[in-house]
């Protein structure tokens, strides 16, 4: 369930994209420093959003640098890193490990199992660093898996469990902004879960895998209902975002929440319409 929380580059100023990309590259460097090449391979846009929203809210001291990488070996790129880059790197490994093990159990993807086993030492260290957070995430994912096996058709209940996962990820520390960040993460998590289900519905039904939309897919109003549900999730998420006292990078974050998250949806809908 990665890759939905992205920017709409076409609607960004060049300067804004450079800032966004610097946090992305900074997270990439932190993953490599903390977890090696294997960790670097787990890099996701979703966690870049996490770095940027926490950075913009808490305004920590941020270091700037320049680096080259395998993807861009001939040109140095600007990086921005701070304590939230470290936190996001840890959360990225945590979620990737769970996703790898989930893919192995669901579809017996051997490569995903190998990747998960390779990440296990790092995962165990992170779980010790954030024991309460890891426990709550594991419990929510275990409940989600159990209900999926039971083919529970309550869409809101299923999405809410992944919402709890993202609420924990967004909840950096107990303070006056904790409640708002948790609510933002909760609705964002529900959107991610449902967007993933919307994208995979045909494949899941063909392969015999669970999908929360399995009862609704044949309805003539399926497309309209999915759009309505997803819009409601992002409306609640955006409402919580606008309550936060964020000034720095506000246009970049709004680009993600109001436009970027819909990029994959529009792609999937267009392909589905054509087919």
What this model shows, in words?
This protein has about 280 residues and is mainly α. It has a domain at about 130-245. It has 10 helices and 2 strands. It has a two-stranded antiparallel ribbon. Helix 2 runs antiparallel to helix 3, helix 6 packs across helix 7 and helix 7 runs antiparallel to helix 8 (about 220-245). The two termini are about 25 Å apart. The model has no long low-confidence stretch (mean pLDDT about 90).
Fill in the keyword field for this structure:
single chain, 275 residues, mainly alpha, two-stranded antiparallel sheet, globular
Short description:
With 275 residues, the chain is mainly alpha-helical. Helix content is 71%, strand content 4%. It has a domain at 132-243.
Detail the topology: elements first, then pairings:
Elements: H1 14-40, H2 45-58, E1 63-67, E2 77-81, H3 83-107, H4 110-129, H5 131-149, H6 155-170, H7 178-207, H8 222-243, H9 250-258, H10 263-274
Helix pairs in contact: 1-2, 1-3, 2-3, 3-4, 4-5, 5-6, 6-7, 7-8
